[in-house]
Write the structure tokens for this entry.
Amino acid sequence: MRIIKSLSRFARNSLIELCLVCGIGGLESRLDAKDILVPSQYSKIQDAVNSASAGDRILVAPGTYIEQISLKSGVTVQGEDRETTEIKFNNDAVVATNIEDSCIRGFTITSSDGNGINMYNSYLEIRDNIIQDSKKGNGIYARVGRSSTVNLSGVINNVIENNKRGIHYWANVCDANLIVRGTIWNNIVSNNSGEGILLEASSNCMGSNKCEPWVINNVIYGNESDGIKLNDQRQYGSTPYISNNIIAKNKGVGINNDQMTPTVAYNDVWDNTGGDYNNTASLAGSISADPQFVNPNSGDFHLQAGSPCIDAGRPTNAPLEDIDLNVRPQCRDYDMGIDEYVYPSVKFKRGDTNFSGSVNIADAVCILSYLFGSGASSVDCKDRYTRCKNAFDSNSDGTVNLADAIKVLGHLFGNTGDLPEPFKNCGNGSAKYNLGCGCEDYSPCNN
Ligand SMILES: [Ca+2]
Ligand SMILES: [Ca+2]
Ligand SMILES: [Ca+2]
Ligand SMILES: [Ca+2]
């Protein structure tokens, strides 16, 4: 119960996330874990971290904390509101050295002379932070220098702006077969004075290092150098996966590859001063078009209706939620960028699957035709399904299957009553049941 209660104070949490990320030790170990409050129990965040054991959470109230935070394995450090809970330091603001299963989330993080977050041979989750104004260092600097290590950090839903570089992942160890991996998902990386993201594999001596995280569903915008730079000068064969990103208006090259072998697919790479690509081979599904952000100058990188990035991405290795915690995908497929566009709820009539304005036997047939039909006779019903899935969800349970045909037949012939609203008149389905693309093309309600 205590975990549930404390969760409600931090509205953006969900139990799913707790299991996946900040409680990396697992739910079992969390049950006897404790929450430590800053500043009520410790005035400094670091004192709270020092007192914590693996599985504990440090919960930090809004304020400016001028100190360097050195993370501890298994311990989550969580700010209440990233706009008002700030960690500032002259050197690196957050450091992680040989750390595993830690999490930092919910802060504004700034360093005047160092990096925002400096990870060395560590595995942690960095989520929901604003990492900004580290003008002499990187927003996130992840370097691995211990032999035979695989780095699996998650960098998710952060805003990383106005630093020297945005993110620098660097596999740099001597003679080690080192691989740096992990996920870089749903981040806004903008207005940094160097590269947005620099992935690098190098060594001062012989080795076989690789730097190949998944860089997926990010917006990389307006950086002073390359959007993404891939640097593998010794040709160790790094294969980073770069997909579903919007990479636009950077002063250097959009994606600048120096001897890695990346997968680059389903990105919108557009209007970069130094060109959109350099030395990238396959570009399956890629576009180069104005992404139609809501207001990029004020940092709002949501997509407007009609953006070419809507439904233009693909699910491979992609996050299951967007930056708003909307489920991905909505409608026909994944979107590019940090936002999964949620179609507005538009009026329809439940069960009227042939769009006639009323429900009869033809509508049950259309559900069956969608589910089981093949060939020309099923095309119309399959098309109508993509245009208004809500009409097909006759029992309003959020999925479309045989039970929906049975529900219509029961209503017509079995005295099982009306279908759930909206039924007799046009109306909106509740958000829970708002399947897919909305019902803009549901003709009986479009007058
Ligand atoms: Ca979509
Ligand atoms: Ca969204
Ligand atoms: Ca009908
Ligand atoms: Ca259903």
About this structure: Residues 361-445 form one domain. Confidence is low (pLDDT under 50) at residues 1-21, 23-28. Residues 5 and 11 are 11 Å apart (CA to CA). The chain has two domains: 2-303, 361-445.
